[in-house]
Amino acid sequence: MVLFGPPGSGKGTQAKLLTEMLGLPHVSTGDMLREHIAAGDALGMEVREIIKAGQLVPDYLVIRLVEDRLDRADCEAGVLLDGFPRTLDQARMLVGMAEGRGLRVLVIHLKVDYDVITARLTGRRLCPQCGTLYNIRLKPPIVAGRCDIEGARLIVREDDKESVIRQRLVGYDAQTMPVLEYFFARVRFFEVDGSDRKPEHLAKEIVTWIRSAIDADTDEISGEGL
Q1: Cis peptide before 128 (omega within 30 of 0)
Q2: Which of 33, 34, 50, 198 has the smallest number of Cβ neighbours within 10 A?
Q3: Architecture of the 2-114+165-222 domain
Q4: Can you tell me the distance from the alpha carbon of 71 to that of 171, in angstroms, rounded to the nearest whole number?
């Protein structure tokens, strides 16, 4: 399963809920990169030098990471990928990797109105001392503008300013839409609106679709309904 969603869409929350409900591993390419860097192995050292040089980690390294992870025993029944694929080349490689391992690709696109996202993110406030995150609309502090724990004045992070958020969303569209279009024409694809839904209700709807997609694939393989 591949989960897509713009910044501020609640994708991280959905990834956590879905993996808990389905009993599958949540595989984040970002986490895997950090693990290799912390381990100091050959791949980690190569990635560290690339990042230090201010460059993006190339496709061939990311694909190596994903291939290695998919070959582990806990992925035999399925996996939720987060942060991969990000490019058309990665998407093509993923379809090939999945087919070679007898896996089907299911894509879930968490769609949220960009005005809703902007309102969510511009409402975030951070305690500079303990790092506690608040939202003046959804999770406000007891005393306006002050951390409940430290009493420190809350701040707005640079990447939570509206101009930065809008720029990130434009970048997401430019990078992700071609990948979504590629998948839409080739694999089972589910787009769901998460603009004003409770995360738990949204996750249940996604799980229902996933199970129906798996059943449909099973019927196709067995020849039922043909």
Answers
A1: no
A2: 198
A3: 3-Layer(aba) Sandwich (3.40)
A4: 32
Distance separating alpha carbons of residues 154 and 43, to the nearest angstrom? 39
Confidence grade of residue 218 (pLDDT, cut at 50, 70, 90)? low
Could you give the residue numbers annotated as active site?
11, 86, 124, 157, 168
Return d(Cα 149, Cα 152) in angstroms, integer: 8
Contact residues for 79 (Cβ-Cβ < 8 A; gap 6+): 1, 24, 25, 26, 27, 69, 70
Amino acid 157 reads R
- Which string of b and e fits 23-36 if b means at least 16 CB within 10 Å? ebebbbbeebbeeb
What does the domain layout of the chain look like in residue ranges? 2-114+165-222
Which tens digits make up the pLDDT trace of 82-95? 889 988 999 999 99
For the chain, give the longest Cα–Cα distance.
65
φ and ψ at residue 221, rounded to 5 degrees: -65, -40
Phi and psi torsions of 100, nearest 5° = -65, -20
pLDDT at 222: 53
Q: What are phi and psi of 107, to 5 degrees?
A: -115, 130
**pTM: predicted TM-score of the whole model, two decimal places:** 0.81
